[in-house]
Amino acid sequence: MELGLNGKVVVVAGGSKELARAIAVELAREGAQVAIFSRDSAYLDQTAQEVGQNGGKLFASLADITDEAQVVAFMNKVATDFGGIDVLINCAGRTNPDTFANLSDDGWAADFDVKLLGMVRCTRAALPHLRRSRAARVINVNSVLGLRPQPEFTSSSAIRAACIGLSRTLALQFAADNILVNSVNVGFMEAQHWQKAWMRSGKQITIEQFSEGLTAAVPLGRLGKPEEAAALIVFLAGSRSSYITGASFDVSGGMLWLAADQWLTNEVTYANEDREQHGAGQCALAALCDQP
After folding, report:
1. Domain spanning 9-190+225-253: which superfamily?
2. Do residues 62 and 39 touch, judged by C-beta distance below 8 A?
3. CB 110 within 8 Å of CB 101
């Protein structure tokens, strides 16, 4: 299917490892000119290599999404070198599992700075360039936690809900400029960070139990592939989505519609059913919900 992205300039802001890489590769296959930034130079090099293997060329730069000056400089550099910006994909995330009672002001602020303010900074910096495009898009990669909050992820649940609200607000404000804004809310995706989440949990359950817990929380019985979420995101970036704005799409294998008491806990079998181990498993599992 021709998506009308050939020659379009697309920024993937705040690259989030596997998913951002899958988005960049899919965009390159469609003939888009792709620019991406991240704080991880090794990740950028690997992404550029994969894009090149798929016939594309990537403009990659080191930048910190929490630094407004760096974000503005990156957007202006892309617009100058490529002649504008047509599509912005906000794809930054971080993990901060904790309950309300245990969250510090610093924890709240760090989450807010990356997730919500990251979207704000990138969108604000890209907006003058998007307004000059004839087919402008903003796609905010979000988490299902924004629609199905979890007590073990208090700040993420609250802030991701705000990100969804921001997407809808911007869709209304930008409609007059023909800038379409949508949110894609991802669930559990295949990614390297799941092993880190298991290690952060204290490894009180085995890695096999951890993996079983992930898939048990998904009605489809498996983790999503980054390419599956990327396919929807790239579709929304293209010309065939020209009457879609203010929408919220879930790519979660049906997780959103599980009963609340099934999410992350009831379907997981532990070798030791004590409460301490359950808590560790919940935090590790829920960590993955906020890694777009």
Report:
1. NAD(P)-binding Rossmann-like Domain (3.40.50.720)
2. yes
3. no
Contact 138, 179 (CB under 8 A): yes
Query: 100: left (phi > 0), else alpha (psi -120 to 50), else beta?
Result: alpha
Tell me the Ramachandran region of residue 142: left when phi exceeds 0, alpha when psi lies from -120 to 50, beta otherwise.
beta
Question: For the segment 160-178, what is each residue's pLDDT rounded down to a tens digit?
Answer: 999 999 999 999 999 999 9
User: How far apart are the C-alpha atoms of 163 and 77, rounded to whole Å?
Assistant: 26
What are the φ/ψ torsions at residue 131 (nearest 5 degrees)? -65, -20
Count the residues in the chain.
Answer: 292
Proportion of the chain above pLDDT 70, given as a percent: 81
**Helix, strand, coil % over all residues of the chain, rounded to 5:** 50, 15, 35
Mean pLDDT comparison of 138-152, 210-224, 246-260, highest-scoring range: 138-152
Give me 143's structure tokens. Answer: 């988490």
Taking alpha carbons only, the member of 161, 180, 174, 165 closest to residue 233 is: 180
**Model confidence, pTM:** 0.87
Name the residue ranges covered by the structural domains of the chain. Answer: 9-190+225-253
Reading phi first (left if > 0) and then psi (alpha if -120 to 50, else beta), residue 24 is in alpha
Question: Which residues make beta-bridge pairs with 251?
Answer: 186
Give 267's DSSP letter. Answer: T
